[in-house]
Design brief:
Layout (H helix, E strand, L loop, with lengths): L14 H11 L7 H12 L4 H11 L3 H10 L11 E6 L2 H5 L2 H12 L5 E2 L5 E6 L11 E3 L2 E3 L4 H13 L1
Parallel strand pairs: 1-3
Antiparallel strand pairs: 1-4, 2-3, 4-5
Helix pairs in contact: 1-2, 2-3, 3-4, 6-7
The protein binds FE2/S2 (inorganic) cluster (FES).
């Protein structure tokens, strides 16, 4: 029997590693479909065709089944999020280093709760479970780029730049 090789990551955006991590943790088994789609949703803020195909291929489930799940649950969104995405890691190591404050400060600054996009469509605020860089906690992903030892001040500076970019 040929050995199954999972497809390559769609791009070098670090968020694909998080998605892949969820599948790997589940041995690329089909039952990981919903959990993996959740990881895509929470990391990217929505699921596009590339993401759905990548997950379906990696878990060897029919594309129609993956689309079926995404369209069935209201939790999933096919709509693109804001122009920029701030993803804050809320895994244990980052939590200990205070990411709950980062989340609270970002929510206050943007006037949206985590998982949502500002009204003008500029910025989506997302959270993710451990992004695999615990030694650099607290970690955020700014448009998919990992930044460690993040402070509220720096995060808000970034959000201010994005508000007009
Ligand atoms: S808990 Fe944040 S990188 Fe591991």
């Amino acid at each position: 029997m040929p050995v199954f090789t999972p497809p390559p990551l769609p791009s070098d955006d670090k968020r694909w590693k998080i998605v892949n991590g969820t599948m790997r943790k589940n041995g690329f088994a089909r039952h990981a479909l919903i959990e993996t789609l959740h990881t895509v949703q929470s990391s990217f803020g929505y699921l596009d065709d590339t993401a759905i195909r990548f997950v379906a291929q990696s878990l060897k489930v029919p594309l129609s089944q993956a689309y079926g799940v995404v369209t069935f649950y209201h939790y999933f969104s096919l709509k693109p999020p804001g122009k920029h995405t701030m993803t804050i890691c809320t895994g244990t190591a980052c939590y200990i280093k205070g990411t709950d404050k980062l989340v609270a400060d970002a929510e206050k600054h943007l006037n949206v709760s985590a998982g949502n996009t500002t009204k003008d469509g500029q910025i989506s605020l997302m959270t993710a479970r451990c992004v695999g860089a615990c030694g650099r906690a607290p970690v955020v992903l700014t448009d998919g780029q990992m930044v460690g030892q993040m402070s509220s001040e720096h995060m808000i500076e970034q959000l201010e730049r994005w508000a007009v970019e």
